[in-house]
Write a structure and sequence with these properties.
Helix content: under 10%
Strand order of the largest sheet: 6-7-8-11-10-9
Number of strands: 19
Number of helices: 4
Keywords: Glycoprotein, Secreted, Serine protease homolog, Signal
Pfam families: Trypsin
Family: Belongs to the peptidase S1 family.
InterPro entries: Glutamyl_endopeptidase, Peptidase_S1_PA, Peptidase_S1_PA_chymotrypsin, Trypsin_dom, TRYPSIN_HIS
Order of helices and strands: EEHHEEEHEEEEEEEEEEEEEEH
Radius of gyration: 19 Å
Protein name: Inactive serine protease 35
Length: about 350
């Protein structure tokens, strides 16, 4: 229904909002746009973005802000592009400010102390859940399978805030498979089965001109594959706060550039948070950006615990603090609104998107 450019179609989507006791109706309209130029350079490390101190000073988004920030662009494999406007109705924004806990500043580094990353060589782990959900993006990033046809990754892997990056016009996703030595055994190094991307969704909040600058809060994107895969994927969850985080540890796997051809896994605790971002010091290098961060969450109304994606790794980011450049490893939290948006991108309806 949304594939008719220029035809506005209102569709009500009930979603949940933090500290809110009722459902929210979202109506969307889709319009055609000019085709992108696809001339931007891929940049895996971002500068001059809003950091911890900046986040503390940000006002809570108004309904008008949410309408603009959660609107999104869709680019199709033939180069056509649409804009879908989102109108959030009846939401009650949380009046609490973007709070974080004061922490001492850290010096520049992406590996903090002893390198605590693990390269996954054993085929029994590499080709099984949860490690087999990690994918490689042809622009140089990582991602994670979130449905039989969809991949979650970082927006900056596809768009620099002004234009789509070179290579994103013919975007591909690499699903892991292990190389064979010829005698039926594996050498522990993954190879990739590449599949074309049918369409991409990026929230408008990521684009410069909407926020005035790149906004890490919206550094996420969903890719729809041209053909479905038959692998197990990981479901979405809503990000808990640090105090409510089971086990206090997050996990993610990706394809770090300094370990070419290897799947790299790591885990660590969250050091700080804002309403939309996690600040952590999981050891990571460029190439792992876009990885899905997950942990075990309790299933609603069940005793069962399940691994779910609660954030997207945005990467090693430079931010201005007290006039100086400092660095952090940052992840974009999946809030209830973002959960509803990503879930709608995946399912095309709201039936499966009312709970996280």
């Amino acid at each position: 229904r949304r594939g008719i450019p220029g035809c506005p179609i209102p569709i009500p989507i009930p979603i949940l909002y933090p500290r809110q006791t009722h459902l929210v109706s979202v109506r969307i309209r889709t319009f055609s746009l000019d085709s992108p130029k696809f001339e931007a350079k891929t940049k895996l490390e971002l500068n001059s973005v809003c950091g911890i101190e900046c986040q503390r000073k940000l006002p809570v988004p108004s309904l008008s802000d949410l309408k603009s920030l959660l609107s999104y662009e869709t680019v199709f494999e033939n180069g056509t592009r649409t804009l879908t406007e989102v109108n959030v109705l009846g939401a009650v924004p949380d009046p609490a400010a973007n709070t974080t806990t004061q922490r001492p500043l850290r010096k520049k580094r992406q590996i903090y102390g002893t390198d605590s990353r693990f390269s996954i060589y054993d085929k029994r782990f590499m080709t099984n859940f949860p490690f087999n959900t990690a994918v490689k993006i042809s622009t140089g990033c990582s991602g994670i399978l979130v449905s039989p046809k969809h991949v979650l990754t970082a927006a900056h892997c596809l768009h620099n805030g002004k234009d789509y990056v070179k290579g994103s016009k013919r975007l591909r996703v690499g699903l892991m498979k292990t190389k064979s030595r010829g005698n039926g055994t594996s050498d522990g190094m993954p190879s990739f089965q590449w599949t074309r991307v049918k369409s991409t969704h990026i929230p408008k909040g990521w684009f410069k001109g909407v926020s005035g600058d790149i906004a890490l809060d919206y550094d996420y994107a969903v890719l729809e594959l041209k053909r479905p895969h038959k692998r197990k994927y990981m479901e979405l969850g809503i990000s808990p706060t640090i105090k409510m985080m089971p086990g206090s540890m997050i996990h993610f796997s990706g394809f770090d550039n300094d370990r070419s051809g290897q799947l790299v896994y790591r885990f660590c605790s969250i050091s700080d948070e804002s309403n939309d971002l996690f600040y952590q010091y999981c050891d990571a290098e460029p190439g792992s950006t876009g990885s899905g961060i997950y942990l075990r969450l309790k299933e609603p109304n069940k005793k069962k615990w399940k691994r779910k994606i609660i954030a997207v790794y945005s990467g090693h980011q430079w931010v201005d603090i007290n006039g100086e450049q400092q660095d952090y490893n940052v992840a974009v939290r999946i809030t209830p609104l973002k959960y509803a948006q990503i879930c709608f991108w995946i399912h095309g309806n709201d039936e499966n998107c009312t709970q996280g």
